[in-house]
Design brief:
This protein is of the alpha/beta class and 255 residues long. It is built from 13 helices and eight strands.
Length: 255
Amino acid sequence: MRENRIRSIWQDGGTAINGWLGIPSAFAAETMAHQGWDSLTVDLQHGVIGYQVAVTMLQAISTTPVVPLARVPWLDPAIIMKMLDAGAYGLICPMVNSRAEAEAFIGACRYPPEGFRSFGPIRALLYAGDDYGRHANQTVLTIAQIETAQAVDNIDEIVSVPGLDAVYIGPVDLGLSLGFEPKFDRTEPEVVAAIDKVLSAAGQHGVVAGIHNATVAYARQMIDKGFRFVTVQSDARLMAAAARDIVDGLRADRS
């Protein structure tokens, strides 16, 4: 079975640099994949991406060594299994708030006896190899998104669930849940304390911690704290920022 390079990076003590895809385009995904990310996440929750386009994006990513990941819309076994069958090598599940929800997520990602995933890895066989069924449980990543006060309160129970590989902090929703405005790169003491609590609990249970960031500078701070899976921005935000820089620069020269 094809190696999951994110697992290898983590086993070596490294940090995986993850890109984020919200534009429903195989060409955009392919372009991003050629920029050197360790992994790329196809976002089916808040992006404007449907299942059929998501499959073409996974195919585009497969033209490179980048590990294809996806964020599913919700804790729904149907889409979880379909995205894995399509060849995603790891899934981020939003709004995991309890041990029971973490167990349900992991169960949908694992074949029996470790879970209840149904067997039918149609495209995954092409991407991963004919022995996919024998090794998928040890290869596919399960990443629970932690983004509410409830999840932070239950974090020790969540990260103690067998088979959970990582937690991924959604700082915008986490801040909202704690009574603050929606934004990335949190500095409010209450939100920072919640982030630190998640990081500490994950470390104690051998679970990798990840976080979404708005800037490279903040992502570097998170890596220094101990986060080993970091995302900065998204394809749409990166495109908009680069375009704005060009427009502003030309208008400044013109004035």
